[in-house]
Specification:
The protein is an all-alpha fold and about 210 residues long. Helix 2 runs parallel beside helix 9. It is about 80% helix and about 0% strand. It is built from 10 helices and no strands. It binds protoporphyrin IX containing FE.
Length: about 210
């Protein structure tokens, strides 16, 4: 086997290992959460802790998703891009769990209260808008739809840039005290958007 072929098969294997790592890394904390809930390990205000844990997990997954394609370019490791779809889908799963914990546990599915919170609390509306976009991205992430939608697919999936900004804004406004943590996450998000500024500009120009 030539050196180049050998290198290519190692990269392929590494990409598969990383894909499995994404699934295990995103699933294990959810399983741990169920165990922690059952054992009563979430402290004095378990619902608040649950929403916090799931919200932080979602924003970290979002940043990781944005990191993939510039990293693949810098490392000349195109197969890394295969992680984008599973990571994006896990973002949606985590955001949905965070959303469901708020709907089901915090507000006990009281629909009139849910409606008034959505209208009165801007940070809730921001989070909900981010979730709606993630929902549209998850539904259209099937490879068959990607081929069918062509250029429209790229336009739609560029909305992930908006999701990350909405998520940071939602984070800033949801915290009652302290600004350092949301500031760090916003700085990381802006850094990642700046790193891939050419792709962001191309996406913005596609609407002209
Ligand atoms: C992409 C979607 C979302 C992301 C990335 C996200 C992220 C976050 C983050 C990082 C926090 C701060 C955690 C903390 O310090 O406690 C948070 C808090 C919160 N989020 Fe979200 N969120 C999203 C969507 C939503 C949605 C759809 C809702 C409900 C409609 C929601 C409701 C809340 C609530 C109630 C809090 C807690 C505020 C408090 O501490 O009282 N989020 N979210």
């Amino acid at each position: 086997m030539s050196g180049a072929t050998h290198g290519a098969s190692w990269r392929k294997l590494l990409a598969i290992v990383l894909q499995v790592g994404v699934h295990v890394g995103a699933l294990l904390p959810v399983l741990w959460l169920f165990v922690a809930i059952n054992r009563g390990d979430l402290g004095g205000d378990p619902v608040k802790e649950l929403i916090h844990y799931l919200g932080m997990g979602t924003i970290r997954l979002l940043l990781l998703t944005l990191l993939i394609s510039p990293l693949a370019r810098v490392l000349h490791f195109g197969q890394l891009n295969r992680l984008r779809r599973p990571l994006g889908l896990w973002c949606f799963v985590w955001a949905s769990l965070h959303f469901s914990a708020w709907l089901g546990l915090d507000l006990a599915l009281d629909w009139s209260l849910i409606g008034s919170e959505l209208v009165q609390r801007t940070y809730i509306l921001l989070g909900f808008s981010a979730w709606l976009i993630l929902f549209a991205l998850a539904v259209t992430s099937l490879p068959a739809l990607m081929r069918k939608m062509g250029k429209q697919w790229k336009k739609l999936h560029g909305l992930l840039y908006l999701v990350v900004l909405l998520a940071c804004w939602h984070f800033w406004w949801s915290v009652k005290s302290g600004w350092i943590e949301p500031a760090i996450y916003t700085a990381l998000a802006l850094l990642l958007l700046w790193w891939r500024r050419q792709a962001v500009l191309r996406w913005l120009k596609s609407f002209r």
